[in-house]
Amino acid sequence: MSQTTTKQLSASKLLLVVAVVAIIAGAATGVWKMPHDTFSPDRITVNKGDNVVIYYRNIEDTTEDHNFHMDSPYTFDVVVHAGQTENFPVVSTLHGTSDVTIHVNQTATITFRANWAGVFPYQCLIHQPTMTGYLVVLG
Fold this sequence. Notes:
Elements: H1 3-12, E1 14-18, E2 20-22, E3 38-40, E4 43-47, E5 51-57, E6 66-70, E7 76-81, E8 90-97, E9 99-102, E10 107-113, E11 118-123, E12 132-138
């Protein structure tokens, strides 16, 4: 494969990242030892220029909402589905937003291009301070 082909593939690659709201009923118990209301993963690392896709699922065992928020300079597009996968019907679509709220058993497909290098927090504003993660953009 020539360098030209390699550069074209690298520039056009699609980075798939899964961020799932990891919700376990009650306190940290059992084998998993996962605290309530946390992001999993709580750090997403990408390269500058990558197209990022985050599947954000509310797996809460109660009717508790969660949101996904990123501060400037990042905004994103979102498609919210009525179930735990992208095969369920679309509930709503947002463009150029910095915040989306999802209900129990919904999934949000969040997409954006990592145009700025640095470390950027993402968070659920409803469940602070435990639901905070970081987008690390290299380059």
